[in-house]
Amino acid sequence: MVTWKISPKVGGPCTLGYRAAQNKTDRTNCSDSMNWKFRPDRDPALEIWQVGIDHEGNYTCEVVATEGNFHKTYHLTVLVPPRLTMYCDDHGNPVCKATAGKPAAQILWVLESNSTPKEEGHDNGTVTVLSTFTAYSTNVTNTTCIVSHPAGNQSMTIACHPPDNNGFILPVSITLCFLSIIIFMAVIYYFKLHSDRLCLKTKPPETAPTHSPQDDTMEVEPYTTYVQKENVIYNSVSDLTVGQNLPQGLSPAT
Q: Which residues form the signal peptide (predicted)?
């Protein structure tokens, strides 16, 4: 009989067993990622698919045979290679970052630097290491970072330049120019508003127009003249009518 007893760091224990007398296998609380590598009656090796940090722990193999009982324990440690990235900080210094490695990676610079790496641990046991390159000489352009790790070494090169002050001066200049225009327009509006008020205060008061009786006479005379002319016409017509109606030999009196 062969039995694998597994005690992972994450999750409960599981068991894989094989009984040669019955040619039967059984499993208790084991995930599908763990199984026999070949036929257990020929090779009792255990195979783990897609190994992850959750599989870390103790693996004990027990064999019961006519020759006696045997057991051997293995401690499984999973290596996680870090993810290497590089960038330039706000001061133009190269930064090398080895993210989520297990165990913690070591960061080295090709050129001499007085950088001190900083480590940040995570709940799953991985560690992120950050190192900022500080050169003794300011003439350095290309900088190479080397990450040393049991799962494999990596390297990356980056070129950083000192920060450009124009990126800060230009927005400030635009803002000051805009504020100057607003202040100038406000001053013009202020003086215009006060000049209008002064004009209103110095304007002479309006006086009512004088009205004389002579104006009334001038307004009435045209109507009077018209009436008189109208009467003359009326009298002429009346005289003509009367003359036509008199007997012969009589004439209208004038």
A: none
